[in-house]
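Key result, reporting period 2: structure in, sequence out.
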C-alpha cells in the first residue's frame, strides 16, 4: 500500500476511534471498513486530500440515497455510483451547521460586555448565530424556554446565568447556505450522523428560527473579506468574531494570515478548533481519547469541548 493510501486509511481509522466511537456506531463501522478496503482507498486517493474526509464521503452517500448502516451495502453502492459520488465530493464541503455548539460558546459570550455583534467565520447557513434564541440545559440548570433545548455536560465552571444580547449577526463563508432552500437544508440533513434523530429534529427547529429572521450571510474569504464585513458591525456593540471546526479546511499559511487579520480588529476572537489546528501545546490533558476542540478567547485557552457541543470541560 502506498504512503498516500496508508494516510487515507489512517484518517478513516482515526475517525472511527476518536470521533465516531460511542457517538455513531454506523459511522464507526463504515470508517473501519473503508480503512481496510483497498478498492475504496484507491478511489479516494484520486481526490485531493481535503475531499477524502469521512464526514464528506458519508454525507454525500446519504445525500444520494445510499445506505450507511451496513458496510457491505455501503461499499456496493459506493463502487456502483462512484462517478456521481466523486462529482459531489469535488464540489461540496462539510458545512455541518450544528447549533449545539452554541452551548459551549455561551459561557464566553454571556461574560463579554453586552450587547454583542456576532460575526461567524465559516458560517454555513448561520445557525450558530442565534445563541440568544435557543434554550440550554447544563445538568439541572435550565436557561431560557422553548425549543430547541441544547444540552451540554459542563465541568469546571458554573453554568451561565443569562443569554447574550445580540444586536447584529453576520456570517462569512465561501459557500453560504440558505435555510429557506430545500436543497441546502437537505445537505445539512445529510451531514447529520444517522443515529442522531435529536440533531435532525434540532436542525428543523433552528432552521425555522433562522428563516424567520435571516442573518446577513456574505460569500467571501476569511482573510480577504473579513475586515470589510466586520466594519459593518454597529460601533456601540462588542464585536465577536468566532468560528468552530473551520480552520482545519484552511491551509496553514492562510491560518496565520487569518489570525493576524482578526487580531487587528476591535472586539474579541473566540475560536473552537482542535489544539493542533490552533498550534497550541502544553495544555491540560483532555478528559478522554475522543476528539476534543480547544475553546479560546483572544488566544487564551479556556476549555475542552466536544465537537457537537455536547460537553465542555473548563480548565479552571
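The corresponding designed sequence is given below.
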Amino acid at each position: 500500500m502506498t504512503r498516500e493510501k496508508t494516510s487515507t486509511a489512517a484518517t478513516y481509522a482515526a475517525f472511527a476511534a476518536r470521533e465516531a466511537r460511542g457517538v455513531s456506531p454506523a459511522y464507526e463501522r463504515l470508517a473501519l471498513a473503508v480503512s481496510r478496503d483497498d478498492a475504496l482507498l484507491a478511489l479516494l486517493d484520486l481526490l485531493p486530500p481535503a475531499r477524502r474526509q469521512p464526514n464528506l464521503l458519508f454525507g454525500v452517500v446519504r445525500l444520494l440515497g445510499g445506505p450507511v448502516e451496513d458496510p457491505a451495502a455501503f461499499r456496493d453502492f459506493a463502487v456502483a455510483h462512484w462517478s456521481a459520488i466523486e462529482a459531489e465530493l469535488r464540489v461540496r464541503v462539510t458545512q455541518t451547521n450544528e447549533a449545539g455548539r452554541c452551548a459551549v460558546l455561551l459561557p464566553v459570550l454571556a461574560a463579554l460586555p453586552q450587547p454583542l455583534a456576532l460575526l461567524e467565520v465559516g458560517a454555513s447557513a448561520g445557525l450558530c448565530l442565534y445563541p440568544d434564541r435557543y434554550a440550554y440545559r447544563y445538568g439541572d440548570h435550565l436557561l431560557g424556554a422553548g425549543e430547541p433545548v441544547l444540552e451540554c455536560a459542563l465541568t469546571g465552571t458554573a453554568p451561565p446565568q443569562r443569554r447574550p444580547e445580540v444586536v447584529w449577526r453576520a456570517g462569512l463563508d465561501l459557500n453560504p447556505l440558505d435555510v429557506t432552500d430545500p436543497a441546502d437544508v437537505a445537505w445539512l440533513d445529510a451531514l447529520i450522523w444517522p443515529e442522531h434523530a435529536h440533531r435532525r429534529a434540532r436542525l428543523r427547529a433552528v432552521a425555522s428560527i433562522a428563516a424567520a429572521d435571516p442573518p446577513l450571510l456574505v460569500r467571501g474569504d476569511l482573510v480577504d473579506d473579513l475586515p470589510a464585513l466586520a466594519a459593518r458591525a454597529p460601533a456601540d456593540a462588542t464585536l465577536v468574531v468566532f468560528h468552530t471546526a473551520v480552520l482545519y479546511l484552511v491551509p496553514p499559511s492562510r491560518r496565520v494570515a487569518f489570525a493576524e487579520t482578526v487580531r487587528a480588529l476591535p472586539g474579541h476572537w473566540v475560536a473552537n478548533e482542535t489544539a493542533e489546528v490552533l498550534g497550541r501545546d502544553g495544555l491540560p490533558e483532555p478528559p478522554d481519547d475522543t476528539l476534543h476542540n480547544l475553546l479560546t478567547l483572544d488566544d487564551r485557552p479556556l476549555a475542552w469541548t466536544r465537537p457537537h457541543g455536547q460537553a465542555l470541560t473548563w480548565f479552571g
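The mean pLDDT is 94. The longest helix spans residues 3-20. This case is discussed further under Risks and Mitigation.
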